[in-house]
Structures
1.
Amino acid sequence: MRKLAVLGIGLALLVTSCGGASDDNASEQPDLAMPQPADRAAIVARDAWSDLRIEGDEVEGYATFVDMRDAADAVVVGAFTSFSPGRGFQGDAAEDQMWYINGTVEVSEVIRGSWIAPTTIEVEFVSSAPDEATLEADLAALNAGIGGGDTILFLRDKGGDEAGLLRLVNSYGLVTTTSEMPVDVPLGEVPVAEEANGLTEVQDPRSQWATLDEFITDMRS
Amino acid sequence: MHWASNRLRCLSALVLVSVLIGGCNFGSDGNVGTGGTTSGVWLQPDRTVAVAYRDMTAFYRDGAEWILAGQYQPTDLTINTSIKNTAGCGTNVCMYDSAYGNNGLNGWNSCNPGHEAGSDPNQTCSEQWVRINQTYSPPRGRIVCHEFGHSVGLRHTNEAASCMRRTADGGTSETLTTHDRDHLNGHYN
């Protein structure tokens, strides 16, 4: 009987560890109170952010959000109002075309980076669209799906030839409320169960803060 | 009966050990947006993978040759590489290297929409684009090992000895681990 119990535990761990990404996501959601219905109008579905997700090998990594805040060139609170086509890039190969998507953010508070005026800024996102038709479709989806929700952004001024252009510090640099979680990182990699992969080294905001307001308050201090 | 019990005990131990040591860093996690755009990790449709170097610099192309031959060819994958100087990808994996700018990424992998089949975690993509960002001059062996790993189904891992550990988490390896190879051999056999 005891051996069967050991086998059961082993298999349960294996299933937890090797399930698909979406299954892992579902199984890891902490039991946090969701926002009240009155707040839901501004909440964006997590899937709506998917066109801005690029799972690449990122340059910048931080152990905590406080470390990320202190290293960022600017940290702002605001809301996305629109997405538009940004710069295009032509690589050496003819089909190696890349575009940026510009997200316009109405800034309500500057936590760090007094050089940013609390008005409107544009943030560049890498698009994985291989052609302009796909880019247009992605922009339409983003404009239809995202807007209005409070977001905290950890920003980097690109510097050099790209000085004045802003990007997120990394994929954990956009924290907001989504339809799935009160405090979410919709562009970040979802941690895989039983495997401290990548970004789990940053505090997982989904289990550290109950509300976005609490998160923002901590970032102010 | 005793024999069966021992087998059960061994199986349980193996399962537990494999989970504790390596977790599971294999399987597609492509995000399909409304526009059909995907980015992330996909499997190859089959064990034979054609790789085209598209107008790559000799530095990164040589690095790719070295890594594919030394790390991936010894697995159950069969890698066929070529230099392609005509427009268009049209093969399983195309590699590009350019100075894409300060976008925060050493490299990334994407799937050309319309080439996907199946669903996560077993979704395949028969035309994937690996990009290496020369803006950051990532170490060639490491970035090729990492991004090509995504194009055959490997996800990020916490194993320090694996090239699939993210640079942002301190990853410096340019080799696959036994755990990574076991995933590849388990799927592409």
Note: Chain B touches chain A through 72 residues (CB under 8 Å).
2.
Amino acid sequence: MEADPRAQERALVARAQAGDLEAFEALYRANRGRVYALCYRMAGEATLAEELAQDVFVRAWQRLGSFRGESAFSSWLHPLTVNVALSERRSRRRRTSRVMTTDDPSAYERPVVPKTGPEASVDLDRALSTLPAGARAVFVLHDVEGYKHEEIAKMTGVATGTSKAQLHRARRLLREALDR
Amino acid sequence: MTCEDVLSRLDEYVDGDLAEAEFQEIELHLAGCAHCRQQERELRALVAEAAALPREIQPARDLWPEVAARLRGAEGARGVLVRPAVPRWMRTTSLAAAAAVVIALSAALWTRGPGPVTPAGPRALHVTPVAAGAAPADLLEAEREYAGATADLMAALDRQKDALTPEARATLDANLKTIDDALAEVRTALRRDPGNAQLTHLLTSTHQKKIGALQRVVRLNRT
């Protein structure tokens, strides 16, 4: 086995591209933590995050042919993960819109965060899960993942101003939830 | 600038998204307003905390068994044969390279050795590399060899028939029929235009697709 991790990864990708499921499993194991973290934060709950993470790897397998090895596999996987999480949010929003009885978003803006975790990051992750989906997605993409508003607007299909407004809302709600 | 003005722009100030003049105005206000400075500190602390969140969270359970099951079966049942898309570079390789890929992939499943297909000892798989725009006789020979390779794989699949669900088999058959239909169309076009290099390439790459699909099913059934 080659010592260079990138070379090892390239070899695994090449094998997976040729249909080797064991090689793809190795890629899954190396990347599942990163994929799941993003899915968990975007979804706001563990069960849905698990489903999304599975979807990401199924889609990655189907699209493996488009990976040319010019970047790290994790870099290729990242936007794919964002797309899967955002697609799910869009379809969920369509489903939810059929049963919502109020148009007042403030009705959903009262996060209650039980503060049992000793670590701040646990508190923040927990607080994140209580945010409205749109605000949570923008906060995760901007403040956690480092995307710019223009990029987020493109990915989510909203105006840049809307992305900024969602971020403002998310930060305000988080500070309230964390009592800061 | 009032506190309200400043607080409404604090996100952009902290993110460095303001024009210089507005930035300076807010700086000036903050220098003299303890309340807004406190808000700024709290906002910066939240942003820093978010940026420092762990990049990885391990799921509570291993998701691989379900991912693998979907790759092996359910996705295939929806019409997408269990395989990654063929890389673009592989789709655009020359006829000779395509034939070489078939040989290399098949070597993982078969050992060389003459003779007919039998459960105990599969026969040799040898596809003679031919160039794009090859003479009809060479192409015919390559077609025969691809047909032999396909027959070997089908025989291997038949030996595994108990491992393949009826749904998966039906999906496989449907995919094979689609590929066979495509092959027939390309052959018809080649009869009209025998020297066409693109059609020659298409014919061999379609054969390769069929063999690749079969190989993956055979291999996945073994895991």
Note: The helical segments of chain A are 5-17, 21-43, 46-62, 73-97, 120-129, 133-144, 149-156, 160-177.
